[in-house]
Write a structure and sequence with these properties.
The complex is a heterodimer of chains A (169) and B (146).
Chain A (H helix, E strand, L loop, with lengths): L1 H12 L5 H19 L6 H8 L9 H20 L9 H11 L4 H22 L3 H10 L3 H25 L2
Helix pairs in contact in A: 3-4, 7-8
Chain B lengths: L6 H20 L4 H8 L5 H23 L21 H15 L3 H10 L3 H24 L4
Classes of the chains: A mainly alpha (169), B mainly alpha (146).
């Protein structure tokens, strides 16, 4: 038994947890939020509320609090994973994104801004993102969420595969 | 600001923190692992998503079947299924392209900021601008900002 306990502790001290374990925790957390607050997981609507900050509907302020929590959670994870701080090296970005993203400072910033614009616009037109549609919506068996998620993944896979083929990576 | 200091908002802060932490431990905040998922080179994130959805589906079904009550509400947990809206497919296409070319989605952009992955600030700024524009378009398309 101590061996199993030791290996569990080692697995939890690593930067990445076993995928099935972390998936179970995310499923549990997303449902826990529905039980505790009666609101399903949601990210991209909160981004729209940041954009309309001055005249946002105040009953939606929980969305901003939730987004702030995600930043804190990322910080907590980054501070406790025992890995060196991010430096933005080619190795960290991996072969695909190193080849895809322009390598000048201005070019890469414009690329990320434009990509983010597509993400934000697309998520609001679709009525949700990988959180609201895929994790929360598909789990609730919502046909619109199943459709949106299938298109998210289908288009993302096709785009990445095409780009990788064109770039030869 | 004091209106923000409610138990309910405290809960959302905790759930958000847990979600950001788990996204990071999942590896969803690594562009390289997103590339691995989309290029089928490393499917760990597929397992994360599949298990999260399966766990959520099981709990959602149990809650629906047995009428589990929401905390402090005196009513069953509501099943807020998103509607089929105008623009859903075109929006999902744009989202898929943006996700693939950056390796980032709205939730992971924030967790990456917390981790100190500075490039996510550019993506996040783009998401704010795009989401603001999307909400305006939604109001024109169907009278709702959702």
């Amino acid at each position: 038994m101590p061996d199993a306990l030791t290996s569990l502790i080692q697995a939890l001290a690593a930067p990445y947890w076993p995928p099935v374990l972390v998936g179970l925790f995310i499923g549990l957390l997303a449902f826990g939020q529905r039980w505790a607050t009666d609101e399903p997981l949601s990210c991209s609507t909160g981004f729209a509320r940041i954009a309309q900050f001055a005249d946002r509907p105040r009953e939606d302020d929980w969305r901003l609090v939730f987004l702030l929590g995600i930043v804190l959670g990322g910080a907590l994870a980054g501070l406790t994973d025992g890995a060196p701080a991010w430096e933005g090296t080619a190795e960290e970005f991996g072969a695909f994104y190193t080849a895809l993203v322009p390598d000048t400072t201005l070019g890469s910033a414009a690329w990320w801004l434009a990509g983010g614009l597509l993400i934000g616009l697309g998520a609001r037109l679709a009525g949700g993102c990988t959180s609201g549609h895929t994790i929360a919506g598909v789990a609730m068996g919502a046909p619109a969420s199943l459709t949106a998620s299938a298109v998210f993944f289908g288009v993302a896979v096709a785009t990445a595969q095409l780009a990788a083929w064109l770039l030869g990576v | 600001m004091t209106a923000m200091l409610t138990t309910r908002n405290g809960l959302f802060l905790i759930f958000g923190t847990g979600f950001g932490f788990l996204l990071s431990r999942a590896g969803a905040t690594s562009p390289d692992l997103i590339a691995g998922l989309l290029l089928f080179d490393d499917l760990r994130l597929l397992w994360v998503i599949a298990t999260a959805v399966a766990m959520g589906a099981l709990l959602s079904w149990l809650a629906w079947r047995f009428g589990w009550q929401a905390r402090g509400k005196g009513a069953p947990i509501s099943l807020k299924r998103k509607p089929f809206k105008r623009g859903l497919v075109i929006g999902a296409v744009l989202f898929g392209i943006g996700w693939a070319v950056t390796g980032v989605c709205p939730g992971t952009a924030l967790a990456m900021l917390g981790e100190g992955k500075w490039f996510a600030a550019w993506v996040g700024a783009g998401i704010v601008a795009g989401a603001g524009l999307g909400s305006r378009l939604n109001r024109r398309l169907g009278g709702t900002s959702e």
